[in-house]
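Q: Gfo/Idh/MocA family oxidoreductase, please. Structure only.
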Amino acid sequence: MMKKIKLGILGGGEESLIGILHRVAANMFDQYEIVGGVFDSEHSRSVDFGNKLQLDKSRIYRDLDHLVEAEMKLPENERMQVISVLTPNFLHFPMSKQLLENGFHVICEKPLTTTLEEAKTLEKIQQEKGSIFGVTYTYTGYPMVRQMKTMIQNGEIGSIQKVDVQYYQGWINPLIHDKEKRSTTWRLDPEKSGISCCIGDIGTHAFNMAEYVTGLKIQEILADLNYLYEDNPMDIDGTVLLRFSEKTKGVLRASQIATGEENNFTVKIYGDKGGLKWEQENPNYLYLLKEGQALQVLKPGHPYNSEFSLEGTKLPPGHPEGIFDSMGNIYFGIARAIRKEKGFEGAFPKLSEGVRGMNFIEKTVESHKQGNTWVKL
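A: Structure for Gfo/Idh/MocA family oxidoreductase:
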């Protein structure tokens, strides 16, 4: 019987918004066993949370230093093999660096780090150590996103000529207009978030998705960001023009002050033979547009979909799958890589994609500060 991969978690405790997403995803394909971690900066809360998960109390550690020291003393077949980093942005780099240097595989939330220099440092260490490193650009795990990627790769919409990605939320709107609230929110603190809020948080998802589904690399960008208040150091809204090549252009729109929006992530790709549209809030529908033909709606689980799409479909047609399934597919792809099994290309976002994401964040801010000029990536 195949042994489960031993998984540790940093962050993701009682008050975490994403902890449950990662835990459910890790359990989805029966590939992982959560064995311990550091779930909270306050050790007593971490222990209480670990007890709720019915974990061995001896593996609920005070901090990362204690975790690494104790785990490295265990026999190799008993210690944690991979560790998920679910902490605020400023901790991603030091934690991931320490884990890589000690031979652990890593799954890290995005943005990968707070600076491009840090991201490149991680990439260098990872290449030296040969560890598996996944960055959770969650939405790449949806079956119909993978179907979109395959159809574009197979030339079903022809040569790409227009890319339009939009990610609109409204959650910062109630905070940004209150001086005290906006000054005490960690997302709007450069020391904890890095140089960007909106682009760093959700704009990087849109950037990654644009390159993921098209298979193209963005070469140049021109950005216009909105900070709304003089005392707010972090962007909360932005529009970025994209140049993939001389003939392929696009636009990326991201906002956290789109009043009333929840998680409106929309991807539209247009080729010279057709177009494809996908919406995260209705993720089980992929729309295919052809000139002079009726709109086609593709859904997961049907045999007309690609093998890549079907691998990530867990239920029969007509049974909705969502964000947990998407993250579960990414964890499954990482598990296969750890086991050195053959998997689909694009089964999980790699460290190199996290590095490109950090480059995009920094160049976007640079473009805006230079007076909205074109900047090469």
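A: Brief note, in case it's useful. Residues 144-305+357-376 form a domain with the Dihydrodipicolinate Reductase; domain 2 fold (CATH 3.30.360.10).
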